[in-house]
Request: fold
Amino acid sequence: MNGQVIDGTGNAAYFADIGIARDTIVFVDTSYTRGWKTRRTIDAKGYIVSPGFIDPHTHAGGDLRDSIRNSNINYVMQGVTTVFVGNDGRSARDIEAQFTRWESQGIGTNAVTYVGHGTVRRMVMGMRDNEPTLEEMGSMKALVRKAMEAGAIGLSSGLYYAPASYANTREVIELARVVAEFGGNYDVHIRDESSYNVGLLGAIEETIRISELAGIPGHIAHIKCLGVDVWGKSNDAIRLVENARSRGVAITADQYPYTASGTSITGALVPRWFLAGDEEVGEKLDDPEIRSRLAVDMKENLRRRGGPDRLLITRPNDQNKELKGLTLQEAANKWDMDPVEAAIEILRQGGSALGSFNMQEEDITNFMRQSWVMTGSDGSRGHPRKFGSYPKKIREYVMNKGVLTLEEMIYRSSTLPAMTFKIQKRGVLKPGNYADIIIFKPGEVRDHATFENPEELSEGMYYVLVNGQTAIDKGVYTGALAGRGLKREQQNGN
Reply:
């Protein structure tokens, strides 16, 4: 009661009381005339009351499977009450079993899943770099259909990553058409966010083509201008999307509020031809001809990323624990090696996660202001975005820089993803919707995760309710596992 409500629609804040019965909002009352008897009353005077955030891009699948990390506390403490998993083309192989596990074990947030194109392709074709046969395409379609029937929300693809990178556009269109039959969505880590192959603008054009020809809404994951060759091209990218939307193609995007992406030695520097086939990495590196070609390509990829000073080693293999917190240049100096040779040695010894400082602030804010760009964390280990994206966006881009109003930020973090992905009865505070609610003071919201300490919990969410149950009570996690697996057919009635 007494809270200042920002209901998620983008409308201005207003004062109201909100009534909850079990898991559902039963009234949003601005007249303060109701005489309900309540089991518990939360006095939210001086606080903002809004819908819980819906994160359309996370890598929380492993956490939700775990018997301890299934609380998803790093997201709950940010005010996130629903997460998507299975992004970037990497999903559980058995979607039905995943939902069953969530239900039996319990999860701290609601969860939605994609079926991953890369996962499906690898199940059928392994790591081969060629087009599927008619039989193989039929097998992939059958796996996608089975996943959609089990409740997947759509198809995700990581066209930048092997083995999905070996697929041509026709293959993706065919699989997306299966998803379109179910009213699903297509989500993609585009083929190129920089100048690795088709280029940033070419990759966006490919996404638009897939969406248009498959008759399916298309969503660009973590939209950005990555690396020196495409800095400043956000206006060109926005123009492509706006032109597509103007002719009726449903294209949206998400974005995290950091200048560094989270990747790996493999993801950032290793060319996809090197990953094809079933040979072990060490076996390939022992071939002088392959190693020489690899070094040339890795040198060019390092240039694209802005050089070895822009790559921070965040999660090295146990064999190289002493490299944590060093840049690739610092690691190379430590080993008295050329940076490319140091990267190859790290690759040989098991690889490492990286923080890749490859974006410019002007492009970030340019994308952020677009009405079709929502908030997403792309949360992964070793990057602070997994623990801090939403508080950071409030603190830095709403409170400090004023890039967005608080109403706009909440809309882009709740209602917009709910509408885009047809998450029924969530994302807006109104009677009949599920009681996913957060209560906070914007000036007290803080992200504490850094690249040096990426797993520090955020603070400032005074209360967080998931399906009407209190998960955060006066800033403290209660232990509640009130989340649900949200199946597609439960969301849109198909």
About this structure: The chain is about 35% helix and 20% strand. The chain has a mean pLDDT of 95. The CA atoms of residues 232 and 362 lie 7 Å apart.
